[in-house]
Amino acid sequence: MNAFDFHAPTSVAEAQELLARHGADAVAMAGGTSVVVLMKQGLLRPAHVVSLRALSEWRRVERTDGALRLGGLATLRELERSPLVRQTSAALASAFGAVATVRIRNQATLGGALAHADPAQDPPVMLLALDAEVETTSRRIRLADFFVDVLATILESAELIVAARVPSPPPGSRSIYLKFLPRTDDDYATVSVGAVAARSQDGRITHLRVALGAAGPTAIRARAVENALAGSRPRAKDLADAAALVRDEVDPFDDLRGTAAYKREMARVWTERALRAVLV
Amino acid sequence: MLVDGALLSACLLPAVFVDGASVTTIEGIAAGERLTPLQQAFIERGGFQCGICTPGQIVAATALLAEKPRPEHEEIRAFMKGNLCRCTGYEGIVAAIDAAAER
Question: Which residues of A219-254 are buried (b: 16+ CB within 10 A; e: fewer)?
Answer without folding.
Answer: bbbbebbbebbeeeebeeeebeebbebbeebbebee
